[in-house]
Amino acid sequence: MTAMAKLFEPIEIHGLMIPNRIVMPPMTTRLAASDGTVTPPLIQYYASRADGGAGLITIEMCSPEPAGRHRAGELGVYEDRFLPGLRRLTARVAEAGARAAIQIGHAGGHTRQDVTGYPPVAPSAVPHVVQEIDTRTIVPEALTSDGIRALVTAFARAAERAIRAGFDAVEIHGAHGYLIAQFLSPLDNRRTDAYGGSLHNRARFALEVIQACRQRAPDLPLIFRFSADEFAPGGLTLAEAKEVACWAVEAGADALHVSAGCYRSLPSGAVMIPPMAYREGVFIDLAAAVKKRVRVPVIAVGRLHDPALASRVIEEGLADMVALGRQLIADPEWPRKVRDGRTEEIRPCIACNTCIDGMRQGATIGCLVNPLAGHETEYVDAPNPTPRSILVVGGGPAGMEAARTLTIRGHRVALFEREPQLGGRLRLAAKAPVFQNVETEEQVILKFVTFLARELHRLRVDVKLGHAVTPAVVEALKPDVVVLATGAMYRFPLESIVPRVLAAKPGWLKALFRWPAFKQLFYSVMRKPDVRLERRIRALGVDVRRIGDCSRPRKTPDAMTDAITLAYRL
After folding, report:
1. What is the CATH architecture of 2-376?
2. pLDDT tens across 376-405, in order?
3. Burial class (CB within 10 angstroms; exposed 0-12, middle 13-18, buried 19+) of 368
4. What is the DSSP letter of 301?
5. Both ends of the chain: CA-CA distance in Å?
6. Closest CA to 108 of 180, 159, 170, 173
C-alpha cells in the first residue's frame, strides 16, 4: 500500500475535490433503454465501479443532439426528459463516495441514418466505414456555418443540463475519430473556410465548444479528451496535439484526458483500445509530452492495468490521474484491492476486447473474464442458506470459476482435473494466433489462469490435479452435486492434431482464425458435448449439472457465464 500511496491522494479539478487519482473512462454499455433513458442495470453497473473505489466515474458518451448518437440504445442527455434518470444515477455514484462526470460527444460522420434517423454530418463529405451491428460505408453531409454554430450551442446546453442532472464534471469528447476529432484531423477535414486548413482553424470548433460550455457553466469542471496521435498517415500528430492541448486550456479546459488513435489508425483502429499484443502503458509517453506543456491535471490511459505501473505514472509525474476502462469492467474493485494491499486478488483484464467487439455487434457490455459485468442486477452475492457438497470435474476457467463462486457462496467444493495443471483448453487457445478478434499474447491470457488458481488456493478449495473422475470416485466422495466442466469434444479425431498445429503456428493460421465462419466451425460446429461420463454418473442417482459444452445454440459458447449462473442457482 505504501508503494501505491500516490494513487490514493486526492486531486482538485476546478474546485472539485476527487478522492483519488483513479478514473473510470467512458465506455458505451448499451444498458440504457431504447429511448436513451437510464435503466436499473445501467445504474447498478456504474454503482459497482463507484463502490469499488474509483475516484471519478465517467459516464459513457452522450450526444448533445439526436443526430450525433453513435449507437442504438445510447444514453441521452440532449433533452430534459433524461434528467430524472440521470439524477438517480448521479445520486447513486455520489452515495458510493465517487465523483461523476459525463462525456458529451457527437459521432459526426461516424454514425448512420438508420441509427439516428438523421443524415450524418461532418466537417467534410469524407466516407466513413461505420460498424453498428453490421458494417457500412457512409458519406456524411458537410456541415454549414449555421450547422456548426447550432452544434456549439447544443454542446453548451448539454453541459448545463449535466449540472442539473447532478454531474460533478463534464468531459468533452475530442478523440477517436468522432466529430470534434474529425474537425481536428486533416484526414476528415477538407474545409477551406475558417474551420479548415491550418491547425488553428481545424481546432476552432473544439475551442468554441469548450468556450461555450465554460460560458454557460462557469463553475463546472471541464475535461477535454483528445487523441494525441492518430497513428494514421496524414492524421493529427503529437506535435500538433500539444498545440491543441495548450489552446484547449486557454479556452477553459480544466483537465486533459490524453488518448490516441482513430478508426483510420494503422495497423488498425484497435489501437484506440489497445489489445493484448500492445505493450502496457502504450500511451504514457503521449500523456507525459502533453503534461510538460500545460498546468492543468493530465489523465493517462491505455493498458494501465498493473497497479505498479499505474502508480509509477503518478509517482514519476508522467500524468496526474490514470484511467482504467477495461480493467474496471473486469474487476470493479481494482481500486479497493490495491488500496488494501490485495493486488493478488485482482481479476486481470486480458485486453481481449470482447467487451468492445461484442458491444459493436449489438450486445450489451460484457466481459470474457468477468461474467457479472453488465449483469449486476441479476445476481445477489449472498451465501447459500443450504450448503452442499459439490464435486467440480474439470479445471479449465469455467470449472475454476464455478468452484470459486460456489465456495464463496458457502458450499463445500472439491475440484478434480485429470491433467497435471489447471487451465484446460484455454492454455491451448492461448497458442492460437488470434484470440477472440485480436492478436494473441499467450502470457497475458495465462494471467487469468494464474488468478483463478490463486483464488482456489486462497479459498482453500480441495483441488486434485492428475486425477480423472470415474463413477467409483463419485461413489467414494458421495457429493450432493457433480458439476461437469469438461467442455466439448471434436466430432472428428482432431484432439491430437490441433495442439500440434497451434504450437507450430504456420503463417496461414492467423488469416484462417480471423475468418468468422472458420471460428464458428472450429469452436462450435465441429464440437459436441462429451456425455459419456455424465451418463455413468447419472446412473448412480447423483444430481449432475453441465456447463460450457456447446450443447445450446448461441453465437459463442460462454462457459464462464454458465459457471456463474449455476453457482448462483445452487
Report:
1. Alpha-Beta Barrel (3.20)
2. 998 876 667 789 999 999 999 999 999 999
3. buried
4. -
5. 37
6. 180
pLDDT computed for residue 385 by the predictor: 73
CA–centroid distance for 374 within its chain: 11
Residues forming CATH 3.40.50.720 domain(s) in the chain: 380-569
Q: Rounded distance, CA 514 to CA 184, Å?
A: 33
Which amino acid is located at 482 in the chain?
V
Pairing of strands 298-300, 16-18: unpaired
pLDDT-flagged residues of the chain (< 70) = 1-3, 381-383, 492-496, 498-501, 503-505, 507, 523, 549-557
Q: Which of 45, 46, 78, 178 is catalytic?
A: 178
At 553 the pLDDT is 44
Contacts of 282 (CB under 8 A, 6+ apart): 260, 274, 302, 303
The residue among 545, 563, 413 whose CA lies nearest residue 479 is: 413
Strand partners, 528: 489
Cα dihedral across residues 87, 89, 94, 95: positive or negative: positive
Q: Residue 544 to residues 42, 61, 89, 479: CA-CA distances in angstroms?
A: 35, 45, 42, 10
CATH superfamily of 380-569: NAD(P)-binding Rossmann-like Domain (3.40.50.720)
**What's the per-residue H, E or C state across 229-277?**
CCCCCCCCCHHHHHHHHHHHHHHCCCEEEEECCCCCCCCCHHHHCCCCC
Distance of CA 526 to the CA centre of its chain: 30
pLDDT in tens, 212-259: 999 999 999 999 999 999 999 999 999 999 999 999 999 999 999 999
C-beta separation of 24 from 57 below 8 A: yes
SS3 per-residue string spanning 23-89: EECCCCCCCCCCCCCCCHHHHHHHHHHHHCCCCEEEEEEECCCHHHCCCCCCCCCCCHHHHHHHHHH
Tell me the C-alpha distance between 84 and 82, whole Å: 6
Ramachandran sector of residue 281 (left: φ over 0; alpha: ψ -120 to 50; beta: rest): left
Task: With beta carbons less than 8 A apart as the criterion, state whether 173 and 105 touch.
Answer: yes
CA angle 68, 70, 76 (to 5 degrees): 65
Query: In Å, how far are 101, 103, 149, 152 from 223, measured between CA atoms?
Result: 9, 9, 21, 16
d(CA 536, CA 517): 35
Buried/exposed code over 520-557 (b: 16+ C-beta within 10 A; e: otherwise): eebebebbebebebbeebeeeebebbbbbbbeeeeeeb
For residues 335 and 49, give the distance between their C-alpha atoms in angstroms, rounded to a whole number: 9
Residue intervals in the chain for CATH 3.20.20.70: 2-376
Annotated catalytic residue 195: no
Task: Show Cβ contacts of residue 469 under 8 Å, excluding neighbours closer than 6 positions.
Answer: 391, 393, 416, 418, 533
Cell 501505491 sits at which residue?
4
Q: Taking the model in full, what pTM does it have?
A: 0.93
Question: At which residue does the C-alpha cell 444515477 appear?
Answer: 89
Q: Which three cell numbers stand for residue 383?
A: 451465501
In 3-state terms, what secondary structure has residue 402? helix
